[in-house]
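User: Could you go from structure to sequence for me? I need the amino acid at each position, not a summary. Structure tokens:
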């Protein structure tokens, strides 16, 4: 069973680094599939239109992407190719059989000098400029908060809620610098921290922003 207190303390940066990985060869990064499955199960059990959990591998020293040369998912009897992106995001299936069969994920980094680690990131899926209105930002903020709580487990979220990280809103990252004349937005270059108000729940006022939205993540108090 995962330690919920340790899990939440790591989530203070909205990114969980899984240190229980190991290398079987100098060039390979290996991690058990069960950790992915447990977290994907939380997402699949929830009623989330936008919020999801993504997995990346990064270099421990620089926190830069550990670009992937190739990867595979291995069980005792089978082997499958690993799907991933150019940004070192792992596109893993939600598969009970892989969990039952004690599968492991094996990755060969493109840069042999990288010392890789696994990072969990809560992000929005299919959330574009057309979704930038008060109502949907309110919905997304609520989904992020619920997913953070669910990932922490019952013990922490219900009995030790003071250990949960404080979510202050959402962070919008654009492809280039933006300026938004609204007091709820604090924009520095291409990143905007947005304070989501309770009054936004039924307000469909849209924010007309032409600069393409790159990603949306929770705004967590440090």
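Assistant: Here is the amino acid at each position, in order:
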């Amino acid at each position: 069973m995962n330690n919920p207190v340790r899990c939440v303390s790591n989530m203070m940066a909205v990114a969980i680094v899984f240190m229980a990985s190991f290398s079987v060869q100098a060039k390979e990064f290996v991690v058990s599939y069960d950790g992915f499955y447990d977290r994907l199960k939380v997402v699949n059990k929830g009623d989330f239109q936008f919020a999801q959990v993504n997995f990346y591998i990064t270099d421990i020293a620089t926190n830069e992407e550990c670009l992937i040369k190739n990867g595979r998912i291995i069980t005792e009897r089978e082997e499958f190719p690993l799907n991933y992106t150019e940004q070192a995001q792992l596109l893993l299936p939600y598969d009970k059989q892989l969990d039952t069969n004690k599968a492991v994920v094996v990755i060969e980094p493109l840069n042999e000098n990288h010392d890789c680690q696994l990072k969990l990131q809560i992000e929005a899926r299919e959330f574009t400029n057309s979704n930038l209105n008060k109502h949907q930002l309110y919905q997304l903020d609520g989904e992020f908060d619920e997913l953070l709580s669910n990932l922490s487990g019952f013990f922490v979220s219900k009995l030790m809620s003071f250990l949960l990280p404080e979510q202050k809103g959402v962070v919008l990252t654009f492809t280039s610098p933006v300026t938004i004349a609204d007091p709820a937005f604090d924009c520095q270059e291409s990143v905007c921290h947005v304070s989501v108000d309770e009054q936004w729940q039924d307000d469909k006022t849209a924010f007309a922003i032409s600069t393409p939205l790159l990603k949306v993540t929770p705004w967590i108090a440090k």
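One structural detail worth keeping in mind: The longest helix spans residues 134-152.
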